[in-house]
């Protein structure tokens, strides 16, 4: 029996690795996901055959309940709400690791330092992942304020709790048989730490936090793997952990900020160049006027941002693009790596609307040829098209890679109002002579453009 | 202790493998990659099954069962939503 179980785990880890590899290309991604799911099923079935497991019926019922909830969530979720969904699932993964660790503390004799340390780690990381993800979920859903929440002595409290946790874990490593009170303290610490970590993070930094929490949930699984000495858990936990770390670093690079800056400093507005005289005047345009511009454009570049998701405007955008193409224009899409609230969020929305991924261009690819673009349509994006990042050395976002729409022949900006973006930084793009603002709800604006294109 | 070291080696190798596998994923697929990886992290279900299935206290077993439910939601929800998303990615 042991041989059968171990072979199943071996096969499952191969399936996970192959699945992850295939997830790296759009053509094979769907197969990759299925392979990975098969690996999971295999691992679960094999574990049921484990001789230590005696109460199979109750486990099956629990899995049935979990599956029903999971199916319901996956079917119901709107593509615009993907970040919330991922945050929530992530939190459940963390909570699960926390429960597993806790259950073992109160049922097993812990003898070696490795036992106690990995148990403590799976509880600790799981707990942080859980409360951190719940706060992230609340912020993304709008239940909690999206802004960075910083309160008095927050940093001191965080450092104190981290220090106390490290102390408890060291103590447990030295004396593995120490009472379960120590673990109880650790549970309390990590739950509060998760809250403290994510509360100060503002909306636009969410892609970083979601990636990081994803990484944590993998690390927690790895730690649980050490607890039950299961190599499959360690391997898959490590794969997830590194994938989260890579995405985190990609997101940080795309914002030209370090991870510690994102996590610990909120977004400092001190240096934001809010010089009063700099504002100048902007041009406001009606959709009817924009129509003439777009109708004669040969190349059109669409730059979507989080505002597109908020307005649920992806389908109207697709309809409009189809009309442009009928009209003989070449329509392409440039997505900034941190557009939206999680990595790749905009790509999913465009895919949902039926826009082919061939029409997407990378930022580095489009910037050098920006002068040849007749009209840029910026939809609900702000900081990622801010020319200050290139031109103004005193700007807080100076050095961040941006989509340089200001160098296109014309820029149309779809925006609800003149209000500045999340970061509160003035965007000089709006005041350039080749730019025009189309105020209003993005979906309505796009639809009136559709009507003009049809009637025109 | 030997097993412990072997497991640590395994963790190290798997981490390097993870870096190699994921560093090349295009940004278009970042969201499905994340939700797919998220589903894999539900592998902690195996630990939850052990915790709830073993002969032990009622408290530990109940916690284990709760962990089974949470991990299953994570797995099933994660894989299904990834599947749904990937079904939308189309070439012309």
Structural topology:
The complex is a heterodimer of chains A (456) and B (92).
Chain A: H1 2-22, H2 29-48, H3 56-76, H4 82-105, H5 113-141, H6 154-174, H7 181-198, H8 206-227, H9 231-255, H10 259-264, H11 287-295, E1 299-304, H12 306-310, H13 314-326, E2 330-334, H14 345-352, E3 360-361, H15 363-366, E4 375-379, H16 388-391, E5 410-415, E6 435-439, H17 442-455
Parallel strand pairs in A: 1-2, 1-4, 2-3, 4-5, 5-6
Helix pairs in contact in A: 1-2, 1-9, 4-5, 4-8, 5-6, 5-7, 5-8, 6-7, 8-9, 11-17, 13-17
Chain B: H1 2-22, H2 30-41, H3 45-53, H4 58-86
Helix pairs in contact in B: 2-4, 3-4
Short characterization:
The complex is a heterodimer of chains A (456) and B (92). Chain A has 17 helices and six strands. With 456 residues, chain A is α/β, with parallel strands linked by helices.
Intertermini distance of chain A? 73 Å
* CATH homology superfamily of the largest domain in chain A: TPP-binding domain
Strands of the largest sheet of chain A, in order across it? 3-2-1-4-5-6
Shape of chain B: flat
Number of separate helices of chain A: 17
CATH class of the largest domain in chain A: Alpha Beta
Helix content of chain B: over 70%
Radius of gyration of chain A: 25 Å
Computed structural class of chain A:
alpha/beta
Largest interface: A-B, 113 and 81 residues
CATH topology heading of the largest domain in chain A:
Rossmann fold
Annotation, overall tally of beta strands of chain B: 0
**How would you classify the helix and strand content of chain B by structural class?**
mainly alpha
Largest sheet of chain B: none
Task: Give the SSE string of chain A.
Answer: HHHHHHHHHHHEHHEHEHEHEEH
Strand content of chain B: under 5%
Mean of pLDDT of chain B: 92
